[in-house]
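ARCHIVE CARD
Drawer: 12
Card no.: 0347
Subject: one protein chain, sequence and derived structure
Cross-reference: see card 0346
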Amino acid sequence: YNKEQALILADILRTCVGADYSHVRMPTDNKMDCSGTLVYGLDKMGFEVPSDLTADKILNEGYSWIIILDKVDNSKQGEPGMLNLYYFGESYISHINYGVGKLEDETENQIVDASSLGTTWQETRNLSKKQNQKAEAGKVNITWAPFSSNSVPDFQAKIDFTKLRNLSIPLWHG
């Protein structure tokens, strides 16, 4: 885990907010799903990652660059670099979102979350003063952490950036 790299990734993930939710492989500036958001961010940093990466594969494929934490801590969901993985009623890990920390105008640590159409969490979140930017179904959103006080992540992980293969000069110049 490298805090400086995690902060760079957090900055990139924040630029994804507003993109349309889509299961495209390879994610683009304006279309991505929850795991595609991570693929997009790491690609912009110049790292090689599988374009077919899913939340379930992050947990179960044994990638050397993923550090699965021994214990889930709901209070750390929004920390920069935190990967939050959820079953959400499925028999496999079906969702991931990312801690991106807190900027000066934010009252709480934030997470970036790609939400498919038909999700409703945004309605409740938008009623709160903590929600700086209105969240929308079918978009990549930013919201305060913890993501849900009713359901904590099933797993949390961080990235060991030293174990990722660097392809070239990063495409990100934040």
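Annotation on reverse: Helices lie at 3-15, 34-44, 55-60, 121-126. The beta strands are 20-21, 31-32, 47-48, 66-68, 83-86, 95-101, 110-114, 140-144, 155-159, 165-166.
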